[in-house]
Design a protein that fits this description.
Distance between the termini of chain A: 12 Å
Strand order of the largest sheet of chain A: 1-8-3-5-6
Radius of gyration of chain A: 16 Å
Order of helices and strands of chain A: EEHEEHHEEEE
Oligomer: homotrimer
Number of helices of chain A: 3
Largest sheet of chain A: 5 strands, antiparallel
Number of strands of chain A: 8
Shape of chain A: elongated
Helix content of chain A: 10-25%
Chain lengths: 142, 142, 142
């Protein structure tokens, strides 16, 4: 069984946002898979997907604080500045965290750990809606 | 051919630990795959999997030194401190290094480079045993 | 449909290099896939693959500047120094950026976003040619 579908994630401000519910809601065919995988892929270069703690909003706030500090806007070595001070740091953060996730599927559900949730990491101040190409494959019978 | 199995990795202290042997020993069905892939997925938010140099223990020691320096416990911007000073840095390190690996399988074996080994990156001081969900798929005939 | 093939990437100097064209040229069977995935895997521990902006050479130059600053050669905590000052930073950068990519395939082409390109991230000064093991799988009919 193969399925490929583009999902559109609503615009989010710069920061780390839990989107597990939107992603699962957009992929009802997950329920048909007994065993398989889901590949989630952002078609962008200034946003990321990662898995992390799904309960405390302060964890997501601290993610933003850390990455803004670790990849500073005012670093003297940036030469690519045409699109604004958040642009080059957004590219770097995009690659540090990565633009895709491959997740296991078991008995019709994403096989995430209890505390794992999918984060959309929006690295631009005004990134707009984000296109996510999802691919599911595996054995039917969920 | 599809196989999905939970492996449990023994508790390790904070640091970077070579676990290639345990993972391969837990997946004897690798030998049945002529060509395919192995997806290894930690169901946690404060540990990672990565591939790196499999020979020198000093490489793994330097990994710990680097990540403890790059993601400091005493940073002024942490607000999520309830679970101890190693908690929030562990979440960040978890996402910097990632919680899963997708590895090629050829002729019944993981097709790793000569110097590549699988690291369990334990970011907590007392993380305990870690659950790894492994998924194998491909063409039989190894 | 399954295909696995080793590609050899020409030697590159330390830095970030766009290799989308070489990779696609080495995998003409992409054209046979209606829907599927491509897994690209470096069999090394001191180089990476990432996706990022495919237009401006200054973005790739800034990637090098950032990572050379974030993972300094002269850090006091390196103990693994036998293979030269660029060795241990190369291992760390290798794991920060990762050694593999999983890319969606649609209608016979890599389904990349408009601005996405494949970067070979060469972390050694003299890394030489790099072996990339590519695995394609999916449904034929592209």
């Amino acid at each position: 069984m193969w399925l490929q579908r583009e999902l559109v994630l609503d615009p989010h401000p710069r920061g780390f946002h839990l989107v597990t519910r939107e992603v699962v809601a957009g992929l009802p065919e997950l329920g048909d898979l007994r065993v398989g995988l889901a590949h989630l892929f952002l078609q962008h270069t200034s946003a990321s997907l990662t898995l992390n703690e799904n309960a405390s909003p302060d964890v997501r706030r601290d993610f933003r604080a850390y990455f803004d500090e670790a990849v500073p806007e005012d670093a003297p070595y940036w030469t690519h500045r045409l699109e604004g001070p958040d642009d080059m740091p957004a590219h770097i953060k995009g690659s540090l965290l990565g633009i895709s996730l491959t997740l296991p599927v078991s008995d019709g559900r994403l096989a995430l750990g209890t505390w794992q949730g999918i984060y959309l990491c929006e690295h631009r101040d005004d990134g707009g809606a984000r296109r996510l190409l999802a691919t599911l494959w595996g054995e039917a019978g969920g």
